[in-house]
Amino acid sequence: MGSGARREQLQGTSRAPLAARRARGRAAWRAARSFDDLLALGAEFIAGRCAHFPGWGAPDTDTETDAIRAELVELHALGLLTIASQPAFDGWRDRRRVRQRAFVAGFARTALAQRLACARGVEVRVWAPDLPHDAALGSPGEPVTLEDGLARAFLPGDARAEELALFAEDLAPQALRALSECAFVAAFDPVFGRAGQLFPELLGLGRS
């Protein structure tokens, strides 16, 4: 999804239909009972067919998600419930030089997380559900967005507990339990502005 919320686009529609769409989306998440249900809803949100995502403050994704939308939808189909992502970028925005590393983070069953950890040419960090925080692989804090040379966004670290708390507001106990049994994965391309490396690598491993 992106690093910031897209403004709600209400032209041509009233607030009532948007509110109804968001309510239906929230109800769908509350009706989920399995991790597969959550994956399906995550894909629906990325594709623009569900107007709610737990912990997300907007009814849809950022505009920058358009560049990786198809890849994110397929990652959900392969078993990665994404909670944050961005495409690679190297250029100018609002008169500022912006450089971005492609990254994605989310939940996956342990078997898939282990396959993704074998990625080549990119870095993947996995926090298993049965490991204490200090035994997690890797460390947080890698900058993924620079504006005029200053770090503005960072790769999520071990965000399992924080994300589970956000999901707890919208999930039934059975679905939350299924999510809590998953590993948390954060993957990024170490090269700023390089497109075509991270997502193809992860998708290839996910299909294997």
Describe the structure.
The chain has 208 residues and is an alpha+beta fold. The protein has one domain. It is 35% helix and 21% strand. The protein has helices at residues 15-31, 35-46, 69-78, 110-116, 160-168, 173-180, 198-207; strands spanning 80-86, 89-93, 96-100, 103-108, 123-127, 143-147, 150-154, 183-188. The strands form 2 sheets. It has a 4-stranded antiparallel β-sheet with strand order 1-4-8-5. Helix 2 runs antiparallel to helix 3, helix 3 (69-78) runs parallel beside helix 7 and helix 5 (160-168) packs antiparallel against helix 6. The longest helix has 17 residues, at 15-31. The protein is globular and about 45 Å long. Residues 3-14 and 133-138 have low confidence and may be disordered.
Can you tag this structure with a few keywords?
disordered N terminus, 35% helix, four-stranded antiparallel beta sheet, alpha+beta, globular
Helix content: 25-40%
Task: Work out the count of structural domains.
Answer: 1
Spatial ordering of strands, largest sheet: 1-4-8-5
What is the N-to-C order of secondary-structure elements (H for helix, E for strand)? Answer: HHHEEEEHEEEHHEH
How confident is the prediction overall: mean pLDDT?
A: 89
**With helices defined by DSSP (H or I, 4 residues minimum), what is the helix count?**
7
